[in-house]
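Final report, closing paragraph on structural work. Over the funding period we assembled a curated collection of sequence-structure pairs, and we close with a single example.
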Amino acid sequence: MKINKFWLVLIVLFWSCKTLSNVQKPYENLNIINYGNNTAYEFLNKNNDKLIIFIDGTKWYSVLGWKEGETWTSTGSSRFFLDIFNKRTNFMIPERLNMQIGKFYLYDPEMRKNYTLKNLVQAYSFVINSYLAERNYSSVIIIGHSEGAALLPLIYNEITKKEKITGMVAISYGGLSVYEQVKILANSKLNMPDYYREACKNIDALKKEIEMYPDSLGEIMGYTYGWWNSFINYRPYDYYVNINIPILFVHGKQDIMIPVESTQYIQENLQGKLFEYFYINNADHTFSAKESKDKLREKIFKWVNER
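Its predicted structure, as stored:
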């Protein structure tokens, strides 16, 4: 039961990233571009030559959200960042893997098998490389949130024309592995449910179970063993060491999903880089409070405009 409680809490936290909208047309001026089985969603601004690329967090549905009939049940975090920049810059969102707009994939066996760190990086980088090969922008900035932020250094390493990337923004993820982060949460002074803290302390038993069945399509509360196995030891820090472009790290100090220490670790150990750090005192992982969301919006908008 301890194992199940731990993963249940993580799944609840991951799913809390979604933003319910219940609207019929949340995406105006949308262009859909297909590259084989992969897709890019493009929102153009003819009066600007800057491009924002957004990499979304963990979800079992399209980066644009999912639909029930003609109504969008969720638009996720993509809509939030699109609303910040769309009327001022060009905006592109690469689809995760080969998902289709508006569809839900939790029970799709092929998608469950393929949803791993390696495959996500390959899909995102392929779309970005294909897209940039056909276009010329004065500035290209990649923004990642949660899982998307975790993947940023790997995606950057796969970009063919790195000179086109003028900066990146990593939101709610730092440099430590999932395993290290859960270890920190187990002893954190942050306010969290007792059963969640207890479950965090059980991470070593969970890790052994995952390692026993690394490719299993079976679930640990909604996510495959393969997914967790591909992420649990991955350390973004090891890749940021060799990246030398401007990067803004934004992290909420009340984040009980990815502890702020993960970003502070980069700040303490990679001094001298073109990295900037912005911490929001009362913000959780998804910046759910209006005040923290406003601070996030203001900071990234200003930082991007300076590039």
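The first strand starts at residue 20 and ends at 23. Residues 287 and 293 are 5 Å apart (CA to CA). We thank the funder for supporting this effort.
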